[in-house]
Amino acid sequence: MALRIANLLGPRLLNEPLVALTVSRSHDQFVRHRHTKHWNPKWKTLRRQKVMRVKLPNFQEKPEDLSEEEIRSRLKEQGILPPRPWNEKPFFLSCTGGIFEAYVPPEGDGKISPIQVQGAKQKLQYLEKKSRTMMAIRKIKSFEEEFDTATFCKEAEDIYVKMHDLMAKRDLENMTDYVTERAYPEVIHNIENKTIHWKLIKNIELPRVVHARCTDVITKENIFGQTTVRFHTQQMLAVYDRFGRLMHGSEIIAKDVLEYVVFERHLANLYGKWRVHGKIIPDWLPPKEPSLITYLKPAEETSTTETAVTKTSPDTEQEIPKESNT
Amino acid sequence: MTLFRSRPLLKLVLQYQPAALLPAATKIHTSALLQAWKPEDHEPQKFLEYNKKIYPPQSPDEAPRPAFVCHQRSNIKYSPWKMWYIACLVRGMTVDEAIKQLKFVLMKGAKDVRETIEEARDLAVKEHNVEFASNLWVAESFVGKGHVVKGIRRHGRARFGRVEYFHCHYFVRLEEGKPPKHYYQHHPKEPHQQLEDWLQQMRKRKITNSI
Prior knowledge:
The structure holds 2 protein chains of 2 kinds.
Chain A: H1 2-15, H2 44-50, H3 68-78, H4 117-124, H5 131-143, H6 149-169, H7 184-191, E1 195-216, E2 223-240, E3 246-249, E4 255-266, E5 275-280, H8 301-325
Antiparallel strand pairs in A: 1-2, 2-3, 2-4, 4-5
Chain B: H1 2-15, H2 31-37, H3 46-49, E1 68-76, H4 80-90, H5 95-102, H6 109-127, E2 136-154, E3 160-176, H7 191-204
Antiparallel strand pairs in B: 1-3, 2-3
Helix pairs in contact in B: 5-6
């Protein structure tokens, strides 16, 4: 049999190269044959009627992505009334939404030593000069008789240290005792998937109350008090990512930190507590330490659109006088 | 009946310990309702728990622990047995190579697998402190059976058959670093290793009751 084939192919074998003898299967996928079609289309309808049609739910779509009209039409199809939440929960405003009349820290604060003339002047600019702050402090004293800026500074430092310790321990249960609900999500975001080692080494300057304001929410009697305390401290911070690799800071090197922390208390509430409400970060502070790893700079979309607009306008201006001339 | 009903309750109670005094325990009586309305219960949860584990900080002299991210896509409309082939293809490849190869795999499940790997890569860079997106490789890639919707079909002579519409879950774990040379344990050995093994076998021989 092989001899016969060889005889038939013989002359061709001698002339052409031997490569084409083996069947190359590399082009199989370019010519595909379907196996899902019956050779006789005559009974197609009957064959189709044999299988019961089942509507499969789409597991990949999320209820958040559907529009209201889409949900309404689907409920109508099912013949279901939209669910009506009958539970009415009372909610309690235990903090304001932001920092009311934020303190503007003077530029060069913390850099000038108290020995120099300017530094001494700054030190002497005590709270007495700031009338609105004094009025606010008087208002706070009307609710809290034993309120004194000196003792409050110590309390504020304790709350500040406690908050950072809870952050390091990732203790979310007791966090709301030291942090308001407005600052809570920011704090949680910062400790997500990380291990934090933090320590307050010492106070370079004693904490000082630099600003105070009182606001009322909804009714005139419902008053919240906000005070800004200036902390100039030496801290140790080391942030490790989820896998224990150092992400930011260092265990050995201490850093001088100048911060303006805003504390808030619900004065009208008998059981209100002074809690950390936010931080004021002025523009003139030195930039943060760059991260230890590189990252892709996010594309700035707004700047490109602005340049596009400015580019088109001078062109059109030039075109019109040309056309008018011609 | 009580046993069936108490499972979601038990799950909720065991999640928060100690149970009774925590504010979270006040949700106990609405837990069954919550589980009914939540769609997450239909999806596998345990694989994504690995993402929540936080490892203790390493000392500077230790070799840095490679980052990993676990991701999944649930209830893909494809047979798990057919999806297994695609999952096996991708194992041990770098993410770029895996995505490249999946673009040319002519199977329906390849699209979902590719999208899952791309999502996992983006998550790694965004949330798990991975520096370079290309420095990842597929450490684990496997499939699980998802929802099965049953239907019927008629055969000849009024016989009936069952039609099953399968869904599958696809799980992938991407790890930072270079992939290993051989992903599986039982890989063909290098010639010098084979020689050493042969020599060892030869030397281990003993003539019984000899000195």
